[in-house]
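Minutes, project check-in
Item: structure for the 110-residue chain
Input as provided by the requester:
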Amino acid sequence: YDSWRNELIKSAFFLTSFYTGANLTALINLRISDISKDEFSQISSRAYILKTVKNRQGGRKNFIEIGFSKKAKDFFETWLLLLKIITKKECDYVFPSKKAYVINDISVNK
């Protein structure tokens, strides 16, 4: 896979980690299909949490305990749009791993 795409995905992963303080596993296992249509729930005037839907749970909504500021939320929403373009919708992971595409420095989802 193109080197620039790998670097872009890794950069987006690390920026999201930096913005949210989320651990590696929660982000690396996140799939696009897990994210609900109304992605975020505002929990205060400056904080959001990500809504997810797990089909294996009968479509029940979950909230990932990852806090997003307005800036982080805007970045993440932009990343989701960009990801669909650069992967041509071929991958379901929000941050594709080595087998799917990238994050070769991180050995998860092999």
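Outcome recorded: Residues 99-110 have pLDDT under 50 and may be disordered.
No further action items on this chain.
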